[in-house]
Amino acid sequence: MAITFKEVTYTYSPGTPFEFQALKNISTKIEDNSVTAVIGHTGSGKSTFLQHLNALLKPTGGTVMIGNTTITSETSNKNLKPLRKKVGIVFQFPENQLFAETVEKDIAFGPENFGSTAEEASKIAKEMITLVGLPESVLSRSPFELSGGQMRRVAIAGVLAMHPEVLVLDEPTAGLDPGGRREIMQLFGDLQKKQKFTIVLVTHQMEDVANYADHVIVMEHGKIVKEGSPRAVFANVEWLHEKQLDVPASTEFAFEMQKRGFQFTRLPLTESELADDIADFFKKRGQTHE
Amino acid sequence: MNEMIKVSHLTYAYTQNSQPALDDVSFTISSGDWVAIVGHNGSGKSTLAQALDGLIDFKLGNIWVDGTKLTEQSVWTVRSNIGMIFQNPDNQFVGATVEDDVAFGLENMAVPHDEMQARVDEALSEVHMSDFRRKQPEQLSGGQKQRVALAGVIAMQPKIIILDEATSMLDPVGRREILGVIRKLKKRLGITVLSITHEIDETTDADKIIVLNDGKIVSTGAPETIYSHSGLLLKLGLDVPYSQRLKRELTQRHIKTPETYFDEEGMVDWLWQSLLKK
Amino acid sequence: MNKILFGRYIPLDSFVHRMDPRSKLILSFLYVIVIFFANNWWIYLLMAVVAFVSILASKINFKLFVDGVMPLLWIIAFTMVIQILFGTGGQTYWHWGIFSITSVGILNAAYIFVRFTLIILISTLLTLSTSPIQISDALESLLMPLRKIHFPVYEVALMLSIALRFVPSLMDETETIMNAQRARGVDFGTGNIIQRLKKIIPILIPLFVSAFNRAEDLATAMEARGYRGGAGRTKYRLLKWETRDTLATLVYSLMAIGVFALRLL
User: Fold this and answer.
1) Which domains does chain B have, with CATH numbers?
2) What pLDDT, on the 0 to 100 scale, is given for residue A287?
3) Is there a contact between B91 and C132 if contact means CB atoms under 8 Å apart?
4) Region C195-217: what's the mean pLDDT?
5) Which range of residues forms the domain containing residue A204?
6) Claim to verify: residue A207 and residue A259 sit in the same structural domain
7) Range with the lowest mean pLDDT among B14-18, B226-230, B260-264?
8) Residues 6+ apart with CB under 8 A from C231
């Protein structure tokens, strides 16, 4: 399912001394079955942008097209439920939303809200817990007995359980250790390959952007200041540095090599790309060692 | 150099039957050193930090801080020597405004008002937050809140700063800010720094790294030594410095790389030497 | 990104803002007591003038005061209707069973309207010009004599200030949790009372869990920073009684004297 933004603005507390414009004239398209990464600093408008993806917020101006549904400032709050089923959001620190007595009931909560019977929901819970890599025995336990990493998986399972067509991930790996981060990203990567999701990912981990995204949106002060493929966006290392944004470590490394006189036809994004490039340099010099 | 912290055979379990969170842990930290304790979430590193500050009641083993043995009687003396910064920026902000929060520890120490004012001013300028002194916590970013927490610690003039995953909830900018300030402080004031983290990139300034797993110390050494055991780090759910990762990729492509550890700059240098130097 | 600050405090630099919160608290209290002694229009006029001068001295946009009165308009209207229908005395214009409309009833209703409005204006002035923490400081200072009867004044004040400090955090948290549950298909605006109550559970439980976690973190952080109870601490924020406070007290005292003099009319 594609999502299109047309000249979207959003203002918090309009007409009060606390008025604040969080989105300014945003136009962009999130393609069906793509992985879009949204990057930018805290306060750049990313979270406000995300909440427009399933009409948790309605634009103050402009329109958002979610699939075939058009959302404007006039759209009534009724009839938004089918939309919410299609677009699942995994919020930052999603474990903070767990509430049920058992993991099973928590995962079943979404499906039941969308009309599944108790049996269907319980069946879905079983599927989902395996999908996020936890044993079925966890289902009967209280979510609050689990470790932080496990709680996060349960919360993610609770969103996946609604079988959304678009999955929105707001810093899904924040606060996890590197091992946990690798596993969670792997999970989403596999999922996307298997089921052809549309994924929107907000992250500060540029490695993840390089590895998983097809399209990158850079936000600053409520505006989209750049968008394109990861290769195109990360090609301009100096510009990103200026904005105090990170680039993937391999791109950064290659950028440093460039400064010392190495010549790249295009800056690498991942370790293996960079290693290939370096291997080429060695080959050209005829010094490949065994 | 004298011992600032000495831990000997420290063992602690949260409940009687559970696996110990700390299992026979012993190490020393010299005065003025920066020591990093790394381990995945749940490896026992935060428990260790809390033990050092007398925040948990351990029965087995001993801790000495600046020569004072940590006991029920000495705990307030020990605490006055240690400044701690915790993980969640919001949950350690006690005051209604930035300056109130910085003053909180001083109020507890019954510092007279005039001196308090001066120390708050100084601490705030040290972390570049003077312009924010009347701001309320909800007007600050996570990184700014952590800098305020740091100012609160500096104002109390401790000998040791413990960072208990102080950057793990921050974005990259906030992270760089706080580490930058700490680096500067350590240089200027010679404070002993103990940083507890799972980010390997944040250990490059350390004089010594202690690797913790399941409550046990599995490795101790200088960063270069620890980094060269990249297999171990990965197995423990940690990361490997970028230059080491690149080396692994190059080795797979049959390119011989030097045994010794290089940081990124060193690695670029080595590539330049081997490929471009005429 | 919720930019709304708790308590609707408007930080400005004015005569009223710079006043000692203790004097503001006492004078607001005095005002509310004195207004109950008002029994003729001259008194209301005097008190209205004092209220408007005070508001002018605060430099706060008058619209915000109107916003403060608006939500309470229904209560005022209701009280007025009761007063009109049940008030007796003077000329009777209309009469039906226990209800009657009389000239005294109408006059009393008019008094009530003015009285309520002035009370709301003056208490709004207090909350708009004084941050919650200043009010808590003032209370601590004014309650100090209670320490003689072993009332834990320091602890209560600290509790109050921490509670105030965490209100915005918990409000943010509530919003996030509500959004998360909304995204999982909860429709907060619909259903009968029981259904609606059920929908609160997925908000309340995470909120409690988070509040307990926060409390634990905060307690640890406070202990690590050397907090061992209220006694023996020094204070960073000092309250200082200045000339402007004396001046304001003088004005309000004159007003009170004037009110009692005008009662004799």
Assistant:
1) 1-81+158-222 (3.40.50.300), 94-154 (no CATH)
2) 53
3) no
4) 92
5) 3-247
6) no
7) B14-18
8) C154
